[in-house]
Amino acid sequence: MSMLIETFKSTTMKMLATYCQQYMNANWENVWKQHLPETERIFAKNGDSAYGFFCIKLFHPLVAELAGAGLTPRPILPGSFVQSDERWGPPEDRERRFWSVICQTDGRELGTLVTRIFHDHTRLRIPRPPQIYSISVTDHTDIPDVIIQSEPNERKDGFYA
Question: Residue 89, SS3?
């Protein structure tokens, strides 16, 4: 693949991750508060699946924006629970990492967005905003290993790389 195409993909994915992180920072608390009564009902009946409900509400507008820009996340953002991994942090600040390969309208893969969802296993609580970063790997068999081994770095501007 040409250097220009690789640079385009990398630049696009970094820009997209930054945009998505800005969206998270601006919206996660309001979405949490707006849907808290229903989230509490779900948590009382089904425990941690309440966090999945929150993610659906939080990510739905972002997925619509991506579609409008001709981008399709596969699987839909933040990613599939089955393909996610949770192995970081104490019970009150547990981290689960999801991933979605971002495709153009023509099906070409640009890269992968990784979403870090922080949640509490001791009570219903989101201790901090989701964090989003990009990786260049798009092969579904390689992504889990890359995510497990990577430690995203916070940049000076508060975003992740």
Answer: coil
How far apart, in whole angstroms, are the C-alpha atoms of residue 41 and residue 147? 32
- Determine the angle formed by the axes of helices 36-46 and 3-34, rounding to 10 degrees: 90
CA dist list (Å): 149 to 27, 88, 122, 146: 29, 12, 27, 5
Domain range summary for the chain, segments of one domain joined by +? 3-149
22-64 tens-digit pLDDT = 999 999 999 999 999 999 999 999 999 999 999 999 999 999 9
Residue 113 pairs with which residues in a beta bridge? 100, 134
Burial tier of 100 (Cβ tally within 10 Å: 0-12, 13-18, 19+) = buried
**How far is residue 86's CA from residue 9's CA, in Å, rounded to a whole number?**
28
3-state secondary structure of 160: strand
